[in-house]
# Entry
Amino acid sequence: MKNDKTKTGAQLLVATLKAHGADHVFCVPGESYLAVLDALYDESERVRVVACRHEGGAANMAEAYGKLTGRPGICMVTRGPGATNASIGVHTAFQDSTPMILFVGQVAREFAGREAFQEVDYKTMFSGMAKWVGQIESADRVIELVSRAFHVACAGRPGPVVLALPEDMLLELAGVSEIRSFTPVQAGPVEADMARMVKLLESAERPLVLLGGSGWNVDACNKLQQFAETNGLPVACAFRFQDLFDNEHENYIGDVGVGINPALAKRVGDADLLLAIGPRLGEMTTSGYTLLSSPVPKQKLVHVHAGAEELGSVYEGELLINSGMVRFAEALSKLPPLKGAMRWRALTEAARSDYLRWTSRVTIPGDVQMWELMEFLRDRLDDDAIITNGAGNYTVWVHRFYRYRGHRTQLAPTSGAMGYGVPAAIAAKIIHPDRQVVAFAGDGCFLMNGQEIATAVKERANVVIVVVNNGMYGTIRMHQEREYPGRVIATDLVNPDFAAFARSFGAHGETVTATDQFPAAFERAISSGKPSLIEVRTDPDAITPNTTITAMRRNIAGVTA
# Structure
């Protein structure tokens, strides 16, 4: 073991990141961690540094990296404003159970506690939205604490970690010791739990499998799909985890989240056994905690989750299993066919028919028919194409009508954060340059991180961004029209020419005002050899696939008349 003081804290940090397999760093540069940037300069062949235009964009890219790879996405920002800007990505990583490490520059140790320039107590700031928040007070502890950060980010229920880096610590010399790559720690199901689960399933007449959460890989998804197929079980996916099960598979019955198919909601309510594998069963997945009553659901609940602290936190299950998804899927693959498979198949076929009806053509006001755009993309894109989005009513079209056919083909924030889709798409294209990547954004959502087109151009990340422009914050307008009829305020938007905006960065830009213009515009975007943006101008009356603003106003007027 070598113990001569030959490296600075910054050099040790970069060496430790390399040892733990970090190959990308998403950042906005800042003077508080210049020493780290200098150390990364010497490792540019092994660690790609992606400089972004806003810390929110950088943090979202790191979060998307964590979703795609299962390894912590690395983000670096400067102190104070940099950290506050990056907090949105930390919050998304926490709610989405995504492994991520945010490194934040900090004031020099001798200035701490004086409210020095841009000083923030990060333990206080991030304590409610990170698994662990630490500060490296001595260069001698860099290897130890960075290793801890990787382990904490990936153990049990994955999530974000924040580590503050005092500026002077990064210049301090320290001894170099052995650095080993981290080992993810996951619980696994015990034999007795699997036996009881089988007994509960075999006694059920109307079982339903609900998938969600993080910690899955391709093999685990395949094993779960085989289990469902062998036993004729209906499978739904939780809010924004639709890529855990092939949507074209005959056992897939839809997503349980915002805008849920009423027929599927009824099936969840009527199920006599709910096998929830991975989801937290949070507000969006349970339709405001109504699909399952708390604390004891009327359905028998078997809840499998990687985090022991999550089990029983809201719902008391018939059986609670603390297990990582890979280990649980492995245990499922070893089970013999269950008694009851024949009677469940008819249930599954009926539920699948409900799903196909729910995703059939919907006509809306205006010259752009979003269903036809989604149908075109379903046919045009590869099975492994990655679709990203942020938040807003436009996402209903993507979630309801697109069909996710492969693992990690959907990147979307369960945290409901706007501005996520564009940076997530850029990260996805950087990580997987050989895969098609399409980002969806509303006009309000896009301008929260639209400046990252500059990053896409610089990094040659040739994504296609579809901006659905209806001139308003659509989701808020919908709620406003319903809750405060006739009192519209703060939801109208004045927008740029989005295609021209994209071209001003050196990207390709298109404007679509009618349905039949979209296929050709998309082909030009794909073949442009550049990052591309397609602005799709929709009728503002078409607020959702199910209703219009006009209809909402008419219904409210009828009720109050």
In short: The mean pLDDT is 95. The chain has 20 helices and 20 strands. The radius of gyration is 24 Å. Residues 341-358 form the longest helix (18 residues).
